Amino acid sequence: MSGRLVDRLGERARRALVNLVRGVLQIVLAFTVNLPLFILAVLSIAFIPLGFGVVMVPGVLQAVRAVANQQRAWAAEWSGVEIPVPYREEPPGGLGPFRRLGLLLTDPATWRDLLWTLLNIPAGLVLGALAGGLTLYGLEGVFVAPVVATVTEYGWGPFWPLEDYGVAGYAGTVVLGAALTVVSLPLGGVFLKAHAVFTQSLLAPTKGALTARVRQLAESRSETVDASAAELRRIERDLHDGAQARLVALSMNIGLAEEMMKHDPETARQLLAEARASSGMALTELRDLVRGIHPPVLAERGLDGAVRALALTLPLPVDVRIDLPGRADAPVESAAYFAVAEILANVVKHSGARRAWLQIEHAGGRLLMIVGDDGTGGAEPARGGGMRGIERRLAAFDGTMAVTSPPGGPTVVTMELPCALSSPKTLPSSGTG
Amino acid sequence: MRVVIAEDLALLRDGLIRLLGAFGFEVVEAVDNGPSLLRALTGHRPDVAVVDVRLPPTFTDEGLRAALEARERVPGLPVLVLSQHVEQLYARELLSDSSGGIGYLLKDRVSDVAQFVDAVRRVAAGGTALDPDVVAQLLTRHAREEPLQRLTPREREVLGLMAEGRSNAAIAGRLFVTEKAISKHTNSIFGKLGLPPSEDDNRRVLAVLAYLGS
C-alpha cells in the first residue's frame, strides 16, 4: 500500500517537474524570442517607407508565425487546448513582393500575432514562473530556509516566519512549506492551462477568418459542382453520340441479316461481320469512357497499382516510388490519380523530358505526391488549362499544388491532399505487383 | 479437353459454356467467385481455365489473384484471363513465373469465336496468348530502348505477333510470306536479344518477357 502511495507521489513529483521545465521554457521563449522578435517586427514595419522593410517584413512575420505555431502546438500538447491556424492562404502560383506584403499586412491574424508577441512577454514570465515557482518556494521552506537561517540572516525572512517565533517559527516554516509544496503540485498544470487559454484568445481564428474560410469552401464547392455537372454532360453526350448510336446500327444490321438469311446468305454473312466490327468499336468507346470516369485498375488496385499501371504505359521511363500503408477514400483516390495522370500527360506532351520520377507517400494526415522530370521546364500553372483543372480537383478536397519549373528545367510538381488511409492494402499472393 | 470457367455474369458464363461446348471442350465446372475458383482449379486440375479478372466477393482483381495462387500450387496450370480492360501490370504478374500456359485477352475478343477458341487451345498447349492491345503498348513503350532499335521493322512486326502467342505458321499466314522466312526472322530476333538456343526454355516466351521485364 505504501508502495502505491510512493508511486503516486512519484508520479505527481514527475509531473510537477515537467510543468516546472515547461514554465521555464515559457519564460525563456518570452524573453529570448518574443522580446527581440517584437522589436524587430516593429522596426521592419517602420522601415517599409524606406524600402528595405518590404524585403524584411515577410521574413520577420514568417518567424513570428513560426513562434506562434510552436505556441499553438504546445497549447495542444501540454494543456489540450487546440488552436487552429488562422492565416490566410497565399494564392497558388506565387506572388510579387508587394502583393505578398499587402496580403500579410491586411491579414488580421498578423496583427493579433504581433499583439500576442508583445503581451506574452509579461504573460509568459508571470504564468511560466508561477507554474513551478510556488512548488520550488514550498520546497525551499522545508529544506533550505530553516538550515540557512541557523547560520546567517536569511534574506527571504518576511516570507517564512523564522526568527520572530523561535522554535515554533522553524516548525511552522517546515509545516507551511510542506503544505505549500503539496498544494502547489497540481497548480503547475493550472497555470500552464491559463497560459494556453491566454494564447488561444489571441492566436485562434477570429470570426472574420472563419467567414473567409466559409467563403472559400463555398467557392470550391460550387466549382466542384460545376465541374462534375460538366463532366456528367460530357458523359451523356459521349454515350448518346457514340456507344448508343453504334448499338442502334448494330441491332439494325443484325435485323437485316436475319431477313437476308434465306435469300442471300452471303450478304447476311457480310452484315453479321459488320455488326461484329461495330460492336467491337462500341466496346472500345465504352472502355475509354469508363477509363475517363474511374479507371478500372484504380478500383481494383487502388492508387498504388493504378499509378504503377499508368507509368507502364507512358513512352518514357518513370521511376515510381510509392509508400502507402492503406487506401484513401474513393473520391480522394480518384482526385489524386487524375492529378498525377494529368501531370504525367503534361510531361509527355510538353516537357521534352527523357526520364520522369514520381513519389507518393502519406505522412501527418496528408497524401504527398511529387512528380518530377528532366525536361525543359517553363511550366506555367497560371496560364490555365490542365494545371488549373488539377488545382480545382485538388481544391475540392482542400488539397494544394506547387510548381517549380525554371526555364531549362527541371520541373517538379508537388501536390498535397489531406486525407486518412484505411484498410491495409492486400497484394496478390504472387507476382511482381 | 477439360476446362474450368470463372465468370460472375450469368449471361456471359452461359455463353462461354455454350461456346466452348460447341468446340468440343468439356466444361467440368463453372464458378462465379474467387474462392470457389481456387478450389475448382486445385481440385479438378483442368487442362485450361478461362477466368474473368473481376469476381465476387471483392469485385476487384479476385480472379487474377486466384489464378496466380493456383499456378503457385500447380505450376504451369494453363490459365486464360479475360478482362473488360487490359493492363500491362497484370500481364507482367501473369507472366512473371515464365512457365508459359498464360493468356490475357480483352473480353471483346470472344466475339471472334474461331480466334478465341484458337487462343484457348494455344494456352492449353503451354503457349501464350497476349492481347494485341498489350503487345501494341509494349512495342511503342520500348521502341526507344536499345535492343529493340536493332530490330528491323519487319522483325518488330514478327515479334509483335509472336508476343500475341502465334506460331511461325500463323505469322507467315498473316504476313503473306513463307514459314521459312519467318523462322529466319525469329532466329535473327533471338540473336539480337541475346537469347541462345536451349532445350529447356521457351525462347518465344523469353523474348516477350525480355520486354516486359525491361
TrEMBL record, chain A:
The keyword Secreted does not apply. Residues 26-203 form the Putative sensor domain. It comes from the Bacteria. It is an enzyme of class 2 (transferase). This is histidine kinase. Keywords: ATP-binding, Kinase, Membrane, Nucleotide-binding, Phosphoprotein, Transferase, Transmembrane, Transmembrane helix, Two-component regulatory system. SUPFAM superfamilies: ATPase domain of HSP90 chaperone/DNA topoisomerase II/histidine kinase. It comes from Actinomadura graeca. The chain crosses the membrane at residues 20-39, 45-64, 114-137, 167-192. Pfam families: HisKA_3, Sensor. InterPro entries: HATPase_C_sf, Put_sensor_dom, Sensor_HK_TwoCompSys, Sig_transdc_His_kin_sub3_dim/P. It catalyses: ATP + protein L-histidine = ADP + protein N-phospho-L-histidine. Residues 231-298 form the Signal transduction histidine kinase subgroup 3 dimerisation and phosphoacceptor domain. Its EC number is 2.7.13.3. The keyword Repeat does not apply.
UniProtKB/TrEMBL annotation, chain B:
Residues 144-214 form the HTH luxR-type domain. The modification 4-aspartylphosphate is found at D52. Keywords: DNA-binding, Phosphoprotein, Transcription, Transcription regulation. Signal peptide: none annotated. InterPro entries: CheY-like_superfamily (IPR011006), NreC/VraR/RcsB-like_REC (IPR058245), Sig_transdc_resp-reg_receiver (IPR001789), Tscrpt_reg_LuxR_C (IPR000792), WalR-like (IPR039420). Gene3D superfamilies: 3.40.50.2300. Transmembrane segments: none annotated. Residues 2-122 form the Response regulatory domain. This is Response regulator transcription factor.
